[in-house]
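User: My advisor asked me to double-check a structure prediction for Gfo/Idh/MocA family oxidoreductase before group meeting. I don't want to rely on an old file, so could you generate it fresh from this sequence?
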Amino acid sequence: MLNVALIGFGLSGRYLQAPFYEANPNFNLKTIVSNSQNPKAYFPAVEVMKSLEEVLADDSIDLVSICSPNDTHYDFAKKCLLANKHVLVEKPFTATVSQAEELIQLAKTQGKVISIFQNRRFDSDFMTVQKIINEGFIGEVLSCEILFNRYKPVLNAKKWKEVMTPANGILYDLGAHIIDQSIVLFGIPQSVWGETFTQREGSEIDDAFDIRLDYGKLKVTLKSSLMVREEGPRYILHGTKGSFVKYGIDVQEDHLKAGILPNMEGFGIEPASNQGILNSDVNGLHFRGTIETLKGDWGILFQNLYEAITGKAELLVKPEEVLEQIKIMEQVKQR
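Assistant: Sure, here is a fresh prediction for Gfo/Idh/MocA family oxidoreductase from the sequence you gave:
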C-alpha cells in the first residue's frame, strides 16, 4: 500500500482524485494539504497539513498528488522529486517545454515515477471514439473534430484562475485535455496552426481557442470556448467508410460532485440518450444507428500509476507524451 499526500483540496483534489485513492485498496490517502477547506469533513481519517514542506518532511509518504494552482506545478513537482517522492501532477504538467524536460530528466535521475492527471483519456466518450477508430468502424480517418465547450460568462470566483500567468487560460485548462486526446489517437502532427482569443467581458485570460493539427491526409480540428450555451457534438469523425458523431460528455465529474463514488453501482455510465451515432459500412452492410458508450473509468489511471510505481506495469500517461502536448501549446501561444 502506498501512502499518498494530496496537495490542494479544490475541485480536482476533493472530487476528481481523493475518491479514487479512497476506493483503491493499493493506496492510503494519508495526508491532505489545505489552508482554506476542512478535508476531515469528507475524509475523516486523513491528516491535514498546511504546507508542502510538512509533506516532504514525512518519510512515510510515497506519492504526492499535486492539485494546486497551475503556476505551482513545476516548482512543487521538482521539490517532491528532490525529496524522493513519486509524483502525480494535475494538468497542465508545466507552463513550458523546458520545465517539462527538466522534470522528466530529474525523475529519471531520482529513479521516481512522474505522471500527469490526464484523466480524460479514460472518459466514456473518448474511449468509445478510440474503439471506433481502432476497430476500423469508419475506415481510415480523414477528419476529426473535438470540441470542449462550456457556458461560463461570469469570471471564475477563484481569482488565481483569472490572472494572466504562463500556465493559465483555456488552452492550458481544457486544451490540455483535447490536445492530449489527439496525440493518443493520432500521434504527433506534422504541423500546427492555432490561436487563442478572449470572449468574456472583463476577462484578462484567453477563454477560447481554435487549433488545426495536420497529419497529412488526416486533418484534426480542436475548439473550445467558455461562451457556448447550446452544445453541439463533442466528437465528429469522418472516414473512408463512414462517420461517427458523439454528443454529451463523460458523467464521472457530475457523479462525483453528486456523491456517487467510483465503487458504487452505475458510476461512470452515461444515459442512453447520449449514445453516439455511427453511419458506416459494417461487415459489408450499411448501418446507421446508435453505439453503446463504454463505461468511463478514471480509476484506470490510478491503478496503472500504482502498478508503474511498484514495477508491475508500464506507465500509461507518460510525461514524454505530455511534453509533446506542451510543445503544441507553446506553438499556439507564440502566434
